[in-house]
Amino acid sequence: MNVLLTGGTGYIGSHAAVALVELGHQVVLYDNLTNSSEAVVEKLEQVADQRMPFVKGDVRDTKFLIDALGDYSIDAVIHLAGLKAVSDSIKKPVDYYANNVQGTISLLQAMRAQQLKTLVFSSSATVYGHPRYLPLDESHPTCATNPYGRSKLQIEEMLRDVAASDPQSRIVCLRYFNPVGAHEGGLIGEKPNGVPSNLMPFIAQVAAGKRTELSVFGGDYPTPDGTGVRDYIHVMDLAEGHAAALSFLSQNVGWHAINLGKGKGYSVLELVRVFEKASGHQVPYTLVARRAGDVAACYSNPEKAFKLLNWAAKRTVEEMCASTWRLQQSVEIK
Ligand SMILES: NC(=O)c1ccc[n+]([C@@H]2O[C@H](COP(=O)([O-])OP(=O)(O)OC[C@H]3O[C@@H](n4cnc5c(N)ncnc54)[C@H](O)[C@@H]3O)[C@@H](O)[C@H]2O)c1
Q: Are residues 155 and 110 in the same domain?
């Protein structure tokens, strides 16, 4: 299948590209490089042993996107392009709606122009809002608590309308939990500029001595050790979930929301301990006040993914930490 990945040079997109190529798909990377670099294309060539075509473009440029879909005879789109920082979205909501929602409208127009019906969308567990029960299954009520989450929810609802309007539509919204880790080669992965906003890259930088300590937000949650619990999933498991979603859509029409998580929560301190073991370095930390908006625990019920996609996350938290550490070391060498 010829698959266009919007946001293809980003963290998850680049790993999804590897997983798809391994299964024999032809992948085209489409990205405006606002949060990634063209150097990823070279790295992907080394990892996947083949050159993937790269198109530098914005998803909001509908005309350009129509041409790209046509030029590469695209059969299906995986739509990962988007802005993703919750705190940023609170400061710049218009940018988030313009990029994420308007970008998706443009993509849907381009797909319609090319009579394309198959779409996998990068959604997020954030669409569940504050958990009313755990583990979170796909029937849990949806609710957004910030502009980023609202943009994901609006897109999901829009895609549901599209599917309802066209019986040939094939759409999966993948609700990611907490992707971490990197491809085992240490060539591609999440390489944040400046202070990392996610926990795992921050831990890696503390272990590497680039930062003095980790601030753990909240040590008094009703969890076994008092720190927040999240459902971490290895990015290569997540990547393989995209390939499984495409395969599911080759047999099924309609709109489907599916969790991609491991179904098990780890606390911040558990993750720190596993990372220390994987890296052989200490990760000093201080417990500080809770962060506004954070919940005590959030983890998935992954049964629907297993049932519909025949997919389950299989990599361990040790592998998540070890691959992050390999990536951190490869960054240090440069
Ligand atoms: N990483 C996570 O923890 C996480 C969790 C849940 C959902 N998601 C979603 O998954 C998707 C991918 O996330 P990621 O972690 O790989 O982020 P990322 O920032 O690494 O990748 C996104 C890519 O999209 C590109 N992009 C942004 N706006 C664009 C536009 N208008 N046109 C073309 N390209 C554009 C960026 O340059 C970047 O390369 C996002 O939609 C994100 O909201 C991520």
A: yes
pLDDT tens digit sequence for 90-136: 999 999 999 999 999 999 999 999 999 999 999 999 999 999 999 99
Which residues contact ligand 1 via a Cβ below 6 A? 6-7, 9-13, 31-36, 58-60, 80-82, 84, 99, 103, 122, 124, 176, 179
Residue 213 lies in domain: 199-229+264-299+323-333
CATH code: domain of residue 274: 3.90.25.10
Q: How confident is the model at residue 290 (pLDDT cuts 50, 70, 90)?
A: very high
Closest of 11, 205, 1 to residue 119, by C-alpha: 1
Pocket test for ligand 1, best of 35, 61, 136 (most atoms within 8 A of CB): 35
In the reported structure, the alpha carbon of residue 175 is separated from the centroid of ligand 1 by a whole-number distance in angstroms of: 14
Single out the residue of 259, 233, 257 nearest to residue 324, CA to CA.
233
Could you list the beta-strand ranges (E) of 196-273: 214-217, 229-230, 232-234, 254-260, 266-267
Q: Which residue has the tokens 């050790």?
A: 225
Instruction: Assess if residue 203 is contained within a domain.
Output: yes
pLDDT 10s digits, 208-264: 999 999 999 999 999 999 999 999 999 999 999 999 999 999 999 999 999 999 999
Is 72 annotated as catalytic?
no
Residue 278 confidence (pLDDT) above 50:
yes
Total domains in the chain come to 2
Options 97, 148, 176, 266, the catalytic residue: 148
Instruction: Report the run of H or E that residue 174 belongs to, with start and end.
Output: strand 170-176
- Separation of 83 CA from ligand 1 center, angstroms? 6
| Domain membership flag for residue 14 | yes
Within-domain flag for 194 = no
Q: Which atom of ligand 1 is closest in space to residue 179's alpha carbon?
A: 3
Asked if residue 57 has pLDDT above 50, the reply is yes
